[in-house]
Design brief:
With 302 residues, the protein is of the alpha/beta class. Helices cover 32% and strands 21% of the residues. The chain has a ten-stranded mixed sheet, sandwiched between helices.
Length: 302
């Protein structure tokens, strides 16, 4: 009886020991991930704003910077770190301020954001300048990507600060109707949209009546073709590829080139896909970098 009890006690101690080791390992990995993309703050218009930053080892001086904007209420720091490590660019993940619903977001003029006084265009402008001064990043090879709500901010930045980024990439993003009607900019901004045709949140066919509650916005093809016209693209190429297993969705690639200053506009139409970053259909990071890198300048304009 004594031996049985002792055996049970030893087994319990071993189990507890293994649990402690597992928790220690998990905490260490989590801490390592956090260290890999540490959090910083900066002041902007009297508000303390938060961002995370990943700088690959052996990144060259004056290296490129990609700013990545999260979707509505869904910060995802680190999503482009592996791509950044492969191609040696810094990846910054700013965090939007919370709205009246308590959701971290970008102020793009949704109806329920009317009480928000946050100017995120100004914040992103100051953030880029702050990072350039602090880390010596390129003053020309700057790129912006954003998913959903962050995608809407990509369109807004292209319209209101076309001089800030060399190219932008909205993912499952939309052009708000108010922005479309107020955009009088003429400076070309290369743009790459990836969008699912079965997106129930950011509808491919648009929402002219605000039935979804996000405000009126354009059909995705119309928004992209507006950008094509503004960039003065003169060449159109279209092909279809098959995405990754197991979905193996068709991806129709529309590529418009020959624009002002060599600008291009791309649209990847993912047939049957929903509201997504599309990692299950492609290596989204690689696709974005293949687009951004087309607009890299070998030398900064100092």
């Amino acid at each position: 009886m004594y031996c049985l009890t002792r055996s049970q006690s030893a087994g319990s101690l071993i189990a507890k020991g293994l649990l402690i080791l597992l928790l220690f390992f998990t905490a260490t990995v989590a801490a390592s991930g956090a260290d890999n993309t540490p959090e910083y703050t900066m002041q902007c218009e009297g508000i303390e704003r938060t961002y995370r930053l990943h700088i690959p080892e052996h990144m060259p001086e004056n290296g490129p910077l990609v700013v990545v904007l999260h979707g509505y209420g869904n910060p995802r720091p680190g999503v482009f770190n592996e791509t950044a490590d492969r191609h040696l660019f810094a990846a910054c993940y700013p965090v939007g301020e919370k709205d009246s619903r308590g959701k971290a977001c970008w102020n793009v003029g949704y109806p329920f954001q009317q009480d928000m006084a946050i100017d995120d265009v100004e914040f992103l402008s100051q953030l880029v300048h702050h990072l350039q001064l602090k880390h010596g990043f390129s003053n020309r090879n700057l790129f912006l990507a954003g998913m959903s709500n962050g995608g809407e901010m990509c369109y807004q930045i292209a319209a209101q600060r076309p001089d800030l980024f060399a190219a932008v990439a909205p993912i499952s993003g939309l052009m708000m109707e108010w922005l479309y009607k107020s955009d009088h900019s003429t400076q070309p901004v290369p743009l790459f949209e990836i969008h699912g045709t079965n997106d129930k949140t950011s509808a491919w066919e648009g929402d002219p009546d605000n039935s979804g509650g996000w405000g009126e916005y354009l059909p995705v093809p119309l928004a992209v073709h507006f950008c094509v016209a503004k960039n003065r693209c003169t060449v159109m190429q279209t092909d279809t590829i098959i995405g990754k297993a197991p979905n193996r969705r068709q991806i129709v690639r529309h590529r418009f080139s020959g624009g002002l200053n060599g600008s291009e506009v791309w649209l990847y139409e993912v047939i049957g896909a929903g509201h997504s970053w599309f990692w299950e259909d492609m290596d989204t990071g690689e696709e974005l970098w293949s687009f951004f890198s087309r607009f890299m300048e070998k030398r900064d304009k100092r």
